[in-house]
Amino acid sequence: MxxxxxxxxxxxxxxxxxxxxxxxxxxxxxxxMGLFKAPRLLPCLHTVCTTCLEQLExxxxxxxxxxxxxxxxEGSVFQELKPRALQPQIGILCPVCDAQVxxxxxxxxxxxxxxxxxxxxxxxxxxxxxxxxxxxLCSDREVEKRCQTCKxxxxxxxxxxxxxxxxxxxxxxxxxxxxxxxxxxxxPILCPxxxxxxxxxxxxxxxxxxxxxxxxxxxxxxxxxxxxxxIHKHGDSVRELLRGTQPHVEALEEALAQIKGTNSxxxxxxxxxxADIRTFSEGYIKAIEEHRDKLLKxxxxxxxxxxxxxxxxxxxxxxxxxxxxxxVEFTEHLLTSGSDLEILITKGVVVERLTxxxxxxxxxxxxxxxxxxxxxxxKAGLCRGYEVYGAINTKEVDPAKCVLQGExxxxxxxxxxxxxxxxxxxxxxxxxGRGGDNVQVTVIPNDKKDSPVKTMVHDNKDGTYYVSYxxxxxxxxxxxxxxxxxxxxxxxxxxxxxxxxxxxxxxFHCCTFCSSGGQKTARCACGGTMPGGYLGCGHGHxxxxxxxxxxxxxxxxxxxxxxxxxxxxxxxxxxxxxxL
Length: 580
What we know:
The chain has about 575 residues and is α+β, with helices and mostly antiparallel strands. The protein is about 30% helix and about 20% strand.
């Protein structure tokens, strides 16, 4: 039994109570915002008034796609195959979605009429939400009734005339107020080629509705059938396409929901991170301000300390100067104005005073200096949990007090790193205790003064600097160490670079018997042997030195340079033993 399907078009049925047939999106033009007038359906399924579409600025589709100006080989072949008389196709952009609409040869008026929108406009007009309807016959008076047979809206005068005509006497007339609950009250769709005929048939070959005159004319031999007979087949194909499209709608809606959710999450995260940044910044600013206040207080304390020290020194020197002047003036007056007896009488007091004044020790230089500096890049520890920088320094490095330390000061090996330490001190001989001084080191070969060795100076941030370099060839080198462009103590000095350290070809063992796994032919440079034909040394046997040693040269120090001279003693293969 065939499934009963609801017809898609050409029916008149009532809507359920409380249901509306359309809304402003279905009845109002998106451009003029008024009720649709001759609405046209665009390929993107948006509906726009015919007059509104005609006002849009058209463009050449060929120009947009590069057909007229394309200089590629593919475009050239296309232009050769295209007839010369073919004009570029005209297109417009959908005012809703900006989709490109290629206009047919007839222009905007050749686009498909949206009859469904026209029906919705009529329904809205019946509900009093739109402008009043006018008679389909006289186009002058307002509509009062509708002929259900002709599907024409008629005024009172035309309705009476409609009833008087013999052909339409028995047509069913319905008041407009009784049609407000209907879902379809549209006018009959007439054939564009034969305006007097209604489209009731469908041409399968041309895939479009036709009228009776079309069937006997242009579509004479085409398979045609009534629309009511073919609607189910074509409706099913549309429903199939709809079933394939709906999952995409759901997927897109879900994707948009996810994007919306992600966007909301991003906004929340941005707010949270912004709050963290503000909290961090405010805390850091407070820490910096607190550190600034500490530095300023420290600077003020330094000022007071230095000023008090200078004032004390000034008072002492002024008192000493006054005592000196008193002694000098009195003595000069005595010597110039006093008699011999007066001089002899006061000589003892004067000599005692002057002798005492001459023995007073004083410094002719200020007890403190003006050396106060600020190092903005020096770490100053934590303040409120934040790392802060900047320290006040009252010490100044004195190159003459700086010293050099290290075992590799005067010796090095070719192609092996050599290093030493520069210890910076101030004028009093105390360690600077901080870094940041300009330490420059230059290593120059005496025989190649134009080829200095690359040096690395690492600031240990504690007043010491680690200097390393790698000489490429043996010989004598000159090392210059300068601080503030002045030589330090012991600079410049010479370094003797010897040939590369010779590694041991043998093994460092307790005895040959143990290191060789009991091999009789294994020998050792210590010269020891064992009974039973063993050519190498063994514990407690003849020639064993009694301590670990190298099998190749006999040295006792594990970290030492090998002194074995190949070819002058036993063959090397016999000197080298096997380590277990």
